[in-house]
Amino acid sequence: MLLKHLSYLFLLIIGSLSFSSTAASNESSEKNLMKPNLIAGTFEQNKFFKILTRPIKSSGDFYLDQKLGFYWQTIKPVNSAIFLKSGELMEKDHHGNIKSIVGGGTLASVLIKAISGDINALKNEFELLKHQGNDCLELKPKQEILRQAITKIDICGGLKPESIKLFESKGNKTEIQLTYHENAIMPEAIRAQLQ
């Protein structure tokens, strides 16, 4: 269950990192100062398990505020959320109960660096390989603890990743399609949870 939650959050944050890092390398410092504080959109996710013939599908919304944190809300099939607040990974179940996800601290630390657009944090944790002929980036974990869970992550779509695929060590796979909203506003109820 922890791997499921971490993989969801990890994929989206890395996707956002890809956006921040690529933008940072392609834009002048002046333009980087004008980067939006909020990146928001919707996702559709398919989780493939080796033992199942069909994927488990889910969908929802995400919000990444550079100052407040990250919120990943699954709406279908069950309303729940995972969020990163002050470096702590939290889970909100379908009853509204909130609890800390134990063991998420190390990963959360990496993710915070990633959210800030620190490409060096990504290079320390992953080997980065660009696919020839397309706008995809392959990430292979360097650390044994990450390799125990993840074999690789593919991020495609350029400045704003459109698809993210996470390949797990046990043969399972998660595919996420992202759609971004321009001029999005974070709902006050979500903002309150991140403050």
Automatic annotation (TrEMBL):
<dbReference type="Pfam" id="PF03548">
    <property type="entry name" value="LolA"/>
</dbReference>
<keyword id="KW-0813">Transport</keyword>
<dbReference type="GO" id="GO:0015031">
    <property type="term" value="P:protein transport"/>
</dbReference>
<dbReference type="InterPro" id="IPR029046">
    <property type="entry name" value="LolA/LolB/LppX"/>
</dbReference>
<comment type="subunit">
    <text>Monomer.</text>
</comment>
<protein>
    <submittedName>
        <fullName>Outer membrane lipoprotein-sorting protein</fullName>
    </submittedName>
</protein>
<keyword id="KW-0449">Lipoprotein</keyword>
<dbReference type="InterPro" id="IPR004564">
    <property type="entry name" value="OM_lipoprot_carrier_LolA-like"/>
</dbReference>
<keyword id="KW-0653">Protein transport</keyword>
<keyword id="KW-0732">Signal</keyword>
<feature type="signal peptide">
    <location>
        <begin position="1"/>
        <end position="23"/>
    </location>
</feature>
